[in-house]
Design goal:
This protein is about 65% helix and about 5% strand. The chain has 45 helices and ten strands. This is Transcriptional regulator.
């Protein structure tokens, strides 16, 4: 702190002092120009900074210091004392017009003439400049600064914006400004303050102190010693008490929100010109500052806000909840739902909280604002959680977050019962109940046909509504599309599932529903993995995991499917350790009581790990145990097919090929075998000596879209040809397997067969080094245009046609035309087929 020894002369700086080099350098740069402005509220260390800088620079040139007081609102006194300060600093020498200065009506001209006569620059510090507002003084200074004398280096130290025409200096780059944001203490500087140093605060405590005080010097020193009463007294006396009663009331009432704008302040205070009042407070450095990036919004310093709210509670008990309710209603009208929700909770208006959650806020559960919503839901008292149907749905959301599926079902049943007694149920409540039943009851049970039926019905209802009838319409549609897509996948209808999951991912992205998009991308990854597109599956998984990490969803069941699919991809690439780590992450994200099919997927991954590590007996035991313990609610054709295939792979490793053939003879007529199942059956035929049946099956798989099955089929063909003594055909088939495997980074199929024979065949292939018969067709590659190739590069990504168009800087219609042309030239019916075909041709 600095204390003035008189009206003239530099204040004495108390020791010890924290030297702040960065600010001293700003002052050094400033006094090379005409004007330096040090402007901040009380207690920011303005005078101390400039005084300590002046003390350190005392030998570099004269520094005249005048500490202003109310008496300096007299023009004669002001100019007389200013000249006195110049004389005290030794700037006025023999012969200078200021030597015989007498204050009169020509004082400004005489001062200007005296400054013009100085042989070298002089720094003039006007401290406490905010106490001077006399028009004559201001006009005289404005005249002096209109064409400032070359020797003048003016430093203004003030709490408020000076009433001087400084805009010319600012525009010309001739004004240095040091504001509160510069004066705020940083961690190393704060640690050097005596009051802080004595407390020996650790890094976390010091960070908390800096956050609470925002580097305010006086606040740091008082708060370090825990003297909150002194801080309150200082702010009340230095900032609040001197204001008119109406302004003080404005501060109290508008301090309730974290940030405030003019219209919100109007709603809280009953004023009609709050924006102007806030701007006046900000320009007056009354610890009110504009919010970065939000024009028209202001916030109060945290300590001032605490003081104001304490005073409000003391002087007007019971008013604060009313103000929170006013803020909640204002935010609700602005459709700023989470802000409205937080204020409604602070007002403890729980029915209003319930209506806001169901009407608009529940969708935040699926976005990066999930934790904000949960913090409000957790604030609802237990004895109010079932007061209304809407609050009961809030309770269901809390149970879902906790993984309490039984609790979710109980809450939803209670909500249904409550709605049965309501004459006219609102659309929002009815559809929210349906949505939560689908996602938190039907889907976790694993009854996929029931989920398809429920989501189909809900999509039909959503299609009949407008967004003004259901504000969350687009979010609800994205959720329902995703649930139906997942249900179609597990009912073994991949083509339909593909369309719905793509639609869900796109819809979720458009409304900021990151959690829905993660879920859709994860299941798209699983879908294409099951179709043998390993690289594409890895891309979907990467997109899902990256999105989950960005939004803090790494420990949710939605990302668990991505980790489990990643484990399957790693296994196909013969990276067992990495697969086990991905499995571990998936189990952790799934939680202690995961949805049935997520738990079953984890079991299937464990089965694949056992098969990959050469323990088929344990894999078969786990499969049979899984069948025996499967919940009665589980209905999934894909799950049944996958278990059957995994058991058959275990049987092949155990030499039980006839069991495989018997198993697939019992497949219902409706069940067309997948490429992977075809290969499994073909290998069983080879093991039992039925070469003709095996070749008939392998011939249909080798050139198919399922790359894992195709690689396995070519390897099986190579082994069979080698057994029959057809060396060239064996090497040719193995070469095709190697080329296809390299495109997809597939390794596991080569481990599936006899390792010694595989090593011998691969060694023979290296010696012979032949190309596969006929090579790869290259016709389409030659006819794809350059722009079509550009579009083709984006097809394996999750980008929509519109997003591809934006990346290529062409119209979306042009992109769609190129896509149709690509499909035609590659003989593909849809996007994924085109990707698979392009990879087979080596185009991507």
């Amino acid at each position: 702190m600095a204390t003035a020894t008189g009206r003239l002369g530099r204040p004495v700086v108390r020791q010890p002092l924290v030297r702040r080099r960065r600010l001293a350098e700003m002052l050094d740069a400033g006094v090379r120009r005409s004007v330096t402005l040090v402007c901040a509220g009380p207690g920011w260390g303005k005078s101390t900074l400039v005084a300590s800088w002046a003390e350190a620079r005392a030998g570099t040139g004269p520094i005249a210091w005048l500490t202003l007081a109310a008496r300096h609102n007299d023009s004669r006194i002001f100019w007389s004392d200013l000249v006195g300060a110049l004389r005290t600093a030794g700037a006025v020498r023999c012969g200078n017009p200021l030597e015989a200065f007498e204050a009169d009506d020509l004082a400004v001209r005489r001062v200007a003439a005296g400054l013009d006569a100085l042989p070298s620059p002089v720094v003039v510090v006007l401290d406490n400049f905010h106490v001077v507002g006399d028009p004559a003084v201001m006009a005289g200074l404005a005249t002096l600064l209109h064409e400032p004398p070359p020797a003048l280096r003016l430093v203004l130290v003030t709490r408020t914006e000076p009433g001087l025409p400084l805009h010319r200096f600012r525009a010309g780059g001739d004004l240095t400004e040091i504001r509160a944001r510069h004066l705020a203490f940083r961690a190393p500087e704060a640690a050097g303050l005596p009051a802080v140093h004595e407390q020996r605060l650790d890094v976390e405590e010091l960070t908390g102190l800096l956050n609470r005080t925002e580097g305010w010097a006086v606040g740091l020193q008082m708060m370090a010693g825990g003297d909150t009463r002194a801080v309150a007294d200082y702010l009340l006396n230095e900032v609040v008490s001197g204001m008119p009663a109406k302004m003080r009331e404005f501060l109290y009432r508008s301090s309730v929100p974290d940030a405030v704008c003019g219209p919100l302040a109007d709603a809280l205070t009953g004023e009609t010109h709050s924006r102007r009042l806030l701007e006046r407070l900000a320009s007056g450095n009354a610890f009110v500052v504009p919010v970065d990036g939000r024009p028209g919004w202001f916030r109060y310093h945290p300590l001032l806000r605490e003081v104001l709210r304490d005073r409000l509670q003391l002087d007007q008990p019971g008013v604060e909840p009313q103000l929170h309710l006013l803020a909640a209603q204002w935010y609700a009208k602005q459709r700023s739902t989470l802000d409205a929700l937080q204020h409604a909770a602070a007002a403890e208006d729980w029915p209003f909280v319930g209506r806001l959650v169901v009407g608009r806020a529940l969708v935040a559960f699926m976005s990066g604002e999930r934790q904000t919503l949960l913090s409000v839901l957790h604030a609802i008292p237990a004895d109010h959680i079932t007061d209304t149907a809407e609050l009961t749905l809030c309770g269901a959301a809390l149970r879902y977050e906790a993984g309490d599926h039984g609790g979710v079902r109980a809450m939803l049943r209670r909500a249904r019962t409550m709605l049965a007694d309501v004459p006219q149920v609102s659309v929002q409540v009815d559809l929210t109940v349906r949505l939560m039943e689908n996602g938190a009851v039907v889907r976790p049970r694993g009854d996929m046909p029931a989920l398809i039926e429920a989501t189909t019905h809900l999509l039909r209802l959503l299609a009949s509504l407008r967004q003004d009838e259901l504000p969350s319409l687009l979010h609800y549609r994205a959720v329902t599309l995703n649930n139906k897509g997942i249900a179609l996948l597990w009912t073994d209808r991949p083509d339909h599932a593909d369309r719905y999951l793509w639609a869900a991912a796109t819809a979720a992205r458009s409304v900021g529903g990151a959690l829905i998009e993660v879920d859709a991308l994860a299941h798209l990854g699983l879908l294409v993995f099951l179709q043998g597109a390993v690289r594409e599956a890895a891309e979907f998984v990467r997109s899902a995991v990256d999105l989950a990490r960005r939004h803090g969803f790494e420990s949710t069941p939605q990302v668990a499917a991505a980790y489990l699919t990643q484990a399957l991809v790693e296994l196909e690439q013969d990276r067992v350790a990495e697969a086990q780590e991905a499995l571990r992450r998936g189990l952790h994200a799934a939680g202690v009581d995961p949805p049935v099919l997520l738990a079953e997927l984890a079991v299937l991954v464990r089965v694949q790990v056992l098969l990959a590590t050469g323990d088929p007996a344990a894999a078969r035991t786990l499969i049979r145990q899984t069948r025996a313990e499967a919940p009665r609610t589980l209905v999934s054709a894909l799950h049944e097919r996958w278990l059957r295939l995994a058991e058959s792979e275990a049987d092949l490793q155990l030499g039980a090929a006839r069991e495989v053939l018997t198993r697939y003879q019992r497949v219902p007529p409706r069940g067309l075998l997948s490429p992977a199942e075809h290969v499994c059956v073909a290998r069983a035929h080879l093991a039992t000596g039925n070469r003709a049946a095996a070749e008939d099956i392998l011939g249909r798989v080798r050139d198919g879209a399922d790359q894992v099955a195709a690689v396995t089929a070519w390897i099986a063909t190579a082994f069979d040809a080698d057994t029959e003594g057809h060396g060239n055909r064996s090497i040719d088939a193995l070469s095709r397997a190697v080329l296809a495997a390299e495109r997809e980074s597939i390794r596991r199929p080569f481990r599936t067969f006899d390792t010694r024979r595989m090593a011998a065949l691969l060694d023979r292939r290296r010696w012979v080094d032949v190309e596969p018969a006929g090579g790869l067709p290259d016709g389409p590659a030659a006819v794809l245009s350059e722009r079509e190739r550009d579009v083709l590069r984006y097809l394996p990504t999750v980008l929509t046609a519109g997003e591809i168009a934006a990346n290529l800087n062409i119209s979306v219609n042009t992109v769609k035309a190129h896509m149709r042309s690509i499909y035609r030239k590659l003989g593909a019916a849809r996007r994924r087929d085109a990707v698979v075909r392009a990879r087979q041709l080596g185009l991507i």
